Amino acid sequence: MKSDYKFLILAGIAGIIIAVSIVVISITLASSMLASSDEPLNRHVSVYDNNGKLLREYSGRLTRIRRGDNGIRFRADGRQIIIQGGITIIEEAE
């Protein structure tokens, strides 16, 4: 009986370690995709209010899209844009 419990405990710990590893890898990959270098990429950014109404769109070679506590920041046409609140969709073109 004791060996059955030990096996279940070890299997549970292994499952937790695997789950945490997957979450860390996913966060790292997502962060590296969102935090780009200073090189501008072709992107299209759409900003919607919480009801789904389109508020603003930005297209072209946008630089440094970053998500943080103060919203989403990027540079477009030499201006720094900060979007706070709402729903933002960022599409990157090849």
Summarize the structure.
With 94 residues, this protein is an alpha+beta fold.
Topology:
Elements: H1 2-34, E1 41-48, E2 54-68, E3 71-76, E4 79-83, E5 87-92
Antiparallel strand pairs: 1-2, 1-5, 2-3, 3-4
What do these coordinates show?
- With 94 residues, this protein is α+β, with helices and mostly antiparallel strands.
- It folds into 2 domains: 1-34; 37-92, no CATH class.
- It has 1 helix and 5 strands, in the order αβββββ.
- It has one helix at 2-34, and strands at 41-48, 54-68, 71-76, 79-83, 87-92.
- A 5-stranded antiparallel β-sheet has the order 4-3-2-1-5, with no helix packed on it.
- It is elongated, with a radius of gyration of 21 Å.
- The model has no long low-confidence stretch (mean pLDDT 77).
What's the number of domains?
2
Strand segment tally? 5
The major sheet is characterized as: 5 strands, antiparallel
Strand content: 35-45%
Structural class: alpha+beta
Which residues form runs of ≥5 with pLDDT under 50? none
**Any idea what the radius of gyration is?**
21 Å
